[in-house]
């Protein structure tokens, strides 16, 4: 296992990027430690154990050649789609939503894995579509069905944020594959025209989230409380923050979901603008690296996979940060590597492992 070839394979991994990932996750654990009032339980220790195990999984995923993932793309997509169907039949209910499958050892949220599976299967699909045929009707309806089926199942859970993540990843691959911009513009107009109907299909709490996003003051003690307290926490941190373990909004229980969706606000109160910039720069490095991997990739599948996964990571970051600052509705998307939670961390580390596998392939000596 530790012979020469194995060590050579490990040497092809981007260890500088691995260090950035470890630094971000370590910072997240420090924020969780503070959010618990200076205690490893109930969040920081579990998060550390999960990261250690899942980082190993990331490195294992990186050892698999992209050609193998291309062969497995359809089985993976089909398996995750079946798991989503299983959630509808056997899923566990938590927080008013039915999103998890209880596998005994872990509680699995299949919708998280679909964020990766959708990019994987569409990258494979467009790898085989001849150049110039991307916008023809015969080539368009399969990806629309591939994206629509899991989105519908996730919306039934209901989980608007994850459904949007799946849709964004899929649409980005279509765009990157060369589907005409005019088609996206026409689709945007059609969606805008269908907004009144879409509004009626949203659950009551989802409608309230949109209304609160537009005006948090209409329900300051109810649904608007989250956004109001999040803004107070971020603003009170100022440039350098109140100091580690010295947050008040979080420690006095004013800030809801301080360890998951609103962990950026928890961090900003104690670490201020400096802490926020550290996170943004760290993820900026990961995003720039992912784009670079895509540009250097050797095949259409690898290019679309790397760029599609990078765009998906960007979506997580952008929506979470905009959400906690009141620039987007609260849709329940955690901050990658920072927020507490096993399913989200697993998704992000597998995503990064797949991109590492592509850069490892690019560094492999040509036969």
Q: What's the topology here?
A:
Elements: H1 4-11, H2 15-35, H3 44-62, H4 66-90, E1 92-94, E2 97-102, E3 107-108, H5 110-127, H6 137-155, H7 160-177, H8 181-193, H9 195-201, H10 204-214, H11 225-237, H12 263-296, H13 300-324, H14 342-362
Antiparallel strand pairs: 1-2, 2-3
The first-to-last residue Cα distance is: 23 Å
Q: Please provide the ordered H/E string of secondary-structure elements.
A: HHHHEEEHHHHHHHHHH
In percent, how much strand structure appears in the residues? Answer: under 5%
General shape: globular
Total count of helical runs of at least 4 residues: 14
User: Looking at the chains present, what oligomeric state does this protein adopt?
Assistant: single chain
Low-confidence stretches: none
* Count of β-strands: 3
Helix content: 55-70%
Based on CA atoms alone, the radius of gyration comes out at 21 Å
Going across the biggest sheet, name each strand in turn: 1-2-3
Specify the biggest β-sheet: 3 strands, antiparallel
Question: Could you say how many structural domains there are in total?
Answer: 1
User: What is the typical, i.e. mean, pLDDT?
Assistant: 85
Q: Structural class, from secondary structure content? A: mainly alpha
């Amino acid at each position: 296992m530790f012979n020469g070839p194995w060590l050579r394979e490990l040497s092809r991994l981007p260890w500088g990027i691995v260090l950035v990932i470890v630094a971000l996750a370590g910072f997240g654990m420090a924020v969780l430690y503070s959010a618990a009032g200076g205690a490893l339980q109930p969040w920081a220790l579990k998060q550390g154990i999960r990261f250690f195990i899942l980082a190993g999984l990331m490195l294992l995923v990186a050892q698999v050649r992209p050609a193998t993932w291309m062969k497995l793309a359809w089985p993976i997509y089909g398996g995750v789609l079946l798991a989503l169907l299983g959630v509808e039949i056997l899923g566990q209910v938590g927080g008013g939503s039915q999103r998890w499958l209880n596998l005994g050892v872990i509680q699995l949220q299949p919708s998280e894995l679909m964020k990766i599976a959708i990019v994987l299967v569409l990258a494979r699909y467009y790898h085989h579509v001849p150049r110039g045929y991307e916008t023809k009707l015969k080539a368009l309806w399969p990806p629309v069905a591939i994206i629509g089926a899991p989105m519908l199942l996730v919306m039934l859970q209901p989980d608007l944020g994850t459904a949007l993540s799946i849709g964004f990843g899929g649409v980005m691959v279509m765009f990157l594959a060369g589907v005409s911009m005019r088609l996206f513009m026409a689709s945007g107009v059609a969606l805008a025209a269908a907004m009144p109907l879409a509004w009626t299909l949203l659950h009551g709490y989802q409608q309230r989230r949109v209304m609160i996003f537009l005006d948090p003051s209409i329900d300051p003690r109810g649904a608007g409380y989250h956004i109001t307290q999040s803004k107070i926490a971020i603003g009170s941190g100022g440039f350098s923050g109140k100091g580690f373990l010295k947050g008040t909004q979080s420690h006095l229980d004013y800030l809801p979901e301080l360890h998951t969706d609103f962990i950026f606000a928890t961090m900003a109160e104690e670490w201020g603008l400096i802490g926020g910039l550290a996170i943004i720069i760290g993820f900026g490095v990961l995003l720039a690296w992912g784009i670079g991997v895509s540009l250097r990739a050797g095949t259409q599948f690898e290019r679309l996979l790397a760029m599609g996964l990078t765009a998906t990571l960007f979506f997580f970051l952008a929506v979470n940060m905009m959400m906690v600052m009141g620039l987007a509705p609260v849709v329940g998307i955690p901050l990658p590597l920072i927020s507490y939670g096993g399913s989200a961390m697993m998704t992000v580390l597998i995503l990064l492992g797949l991109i590492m596998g592509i850069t490892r392939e690019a560094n492999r000596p040509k036969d």
